Amino acid sequence: MRSTYTVAAISVVAVFSFFALVGPLAQDPDYFEFADPRALWGVPNAGNVLSNLAFVAVGLLGLVRSVAWTPNSLGDDDLPGADPQLRWAYRLFFLGIFLTGFGSAYFHWQPNNWTLLADRLPMAVAFMALASALIGESTKPALGRRLLWPLIALGLASVGYWYTTEAAGDGDLRPYVLVQFLPMLILPAMLWRLGSRLQPTSYAWGTIAFYVLAKAAEVLDEQIFTATGTISGHALKHLLAALGCGIFLRGMRCRKLAGAA
Fold this sequence. Notes:
Shape: globular
CATH superfamily: Rhodopsin 7-helix transmembrane proteins
CATH architecture: Up-down Bundle
CATH class: Mainly Alpha
Radius of gyration: 19 Å
């Protein structure tokens, strides 16, 4: 276990050092251009806007279930595959996903830096809450619980820093890039080496895998739209990411504490 923490620490230092060396990363203006600009029912960029309904649906379902959840112990409640000590991490994860549906729809309706801020703030909450939950599940719940609020503060600060620097004409995405991608490098290594107290781990792996697929679809936005003529890679990204969140919610209902009958 100690070696895993060492690897994680080295990874963090290496990534932070890299971003310190490369200098500020401004927002690419091409980010506001999408492959599918078609309107539907008066909705501009309709595919990218309406696909966010998937986030709203999964986020709302997860939020309702996690808020109404008042367990006494693992395995003796409606969400046996979730740790009661991490309930706020789960709640904030689904709250972030729910709000991302609206923030992302707002951004795609009218792409600009202000609407992108509304998109990224709830995403940062969701990223950090999920990281806290998975850390708590793989190590000790107390660790995940202690990290929750500092991680969320870090995530929100990274978005605020990007927006402030962008408004000043010297945009810098480095902190936000770290918030979004660093957990996706460390958490799989932690899950692989340490496993999880909640079994099977296939649900956590499924969430991570669909996030990777979603990012790939985003990169291939135009190619996917050209190939299908129906759905763009960016709209597909929303659906894949929401499906990954749904897999995590399903795991909260299906997993069991390791060693439990």
